[in-house]
């Protein structure tokens, strides 16, 4: 793995966890402004991290594209197909989690993001655009790409998908994150363009954020209760 890839990963980890010491500092000295400071810190750190990582990845961006890489038209087609495929896989994983593994429906991570987005709509930039770019560079371009040179697609996609799931710190929904990561890896290999999984990831996140942003917390709570009730009924039947 090139040295710059390690710098990229280190930058991402710093961005991902930099809010922890900032939060401790703010709690000690600026507790009245805690929420606003942490939100703006996350926005700033992720944007700064994105620019730093894009700079580190400049040699890769300057490389000549693979002769078999997808054309502009194919990129659009695969991006649309990829979003549909990603939602289908996510739906299937959610059904398995709920009705086979008995895991409650809904993502706590997503709910927290939406709570923050409702408080400060500017925060939507992170899950909708910035995070997908960073995560696809890290987990598909670097981690999956490195593993794929040493093992078959299934194993490389599975391992990188698992890491992708673990970093989101929602182990109860590891299946969903892992399978989505495998879809993104498939799109990367199929098109030989990292821009395709970036578009699919960003498109998927944007659709989810916009859809949930238009629903009130009370409506979400009622939908969650209906799913929990349905889960209990099916579990008793089977």
Protein described:
By secondary structure, the chain is mainly α. The chain has two domains: 1-63; 68-237, no CATH class. Helices cover 80% and strands 0% of the residues. The protein has eleven helices and no strands. Mean pLDDT is 86; it is low at 229-238.
Order of helices and strands: HHHHHHHHHHH
Question: What is the general shape?
Answer: globular
What is the number of independent domains? 2
Oligomer: single chain
Query: Into which percent range does the helicity of residues fall?
Result: over 70%
Structural class: mainly alpha
The chain-level mean pLDDT equals 86
- Give the N-to-C terminal Cα separation: 49 Å
Poorly predicted runs are: 229-238
Beta-strand proportion:
under 5%
Largest sheet: none
Question: Using DSSP, what is the number of strands?
Answer: 0
How many helical elements?
11
Radius of gyration: 19 Å
């Amino acid at each position: 793995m090139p040295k710059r890839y390690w710098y990229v990963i280190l930058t991402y980890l710093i961005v991902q966890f930099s809010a922890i010491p900032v939060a401790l500092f703010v709690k000690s000295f600026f507790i009245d402004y805690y929420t606003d400071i942490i939100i703006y810190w996350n926005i700033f750190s992720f944007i700064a991290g994105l620019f730093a990582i894009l700079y580190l990845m400049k040699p890769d961006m300057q490389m000549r594209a693979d002769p078999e890489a997808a054309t502009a038209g194919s990129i659009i087609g695969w991006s649309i197909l990829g979003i549909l495929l990603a939602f289908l896989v996510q739906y299937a994983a959610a059904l398995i989690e709920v009705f086979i593994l008995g895991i409650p429906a809904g993502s706590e991570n997503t709910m927290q993001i939406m709570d923050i987005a409702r408080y400060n709509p500017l925060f939507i930039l992170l899950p909708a655009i910035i995070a997908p770019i960073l995560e696809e560079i890290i987990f598909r371009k670097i981690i999956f790409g490195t593993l794929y040179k040493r093992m078959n697609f299934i194993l490389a996609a599975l391992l990188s998908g698992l890491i992708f799931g673990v970093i989101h710190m929602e182990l109860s929904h590891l299946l969903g994150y892992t399978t989505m990561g495998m879809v993104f890896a498939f799109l990367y290999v199929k098109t030989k363009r990292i821009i395709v999984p970036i578009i699919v990831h960003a498109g998927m996140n944007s659709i989810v954020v916009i859809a949930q942003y238009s629903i009130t917390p009370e409506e979400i709570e009622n939908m969650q209760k209906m799913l929990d009730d349905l889960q209990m009924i099916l579990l008793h039947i089977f």
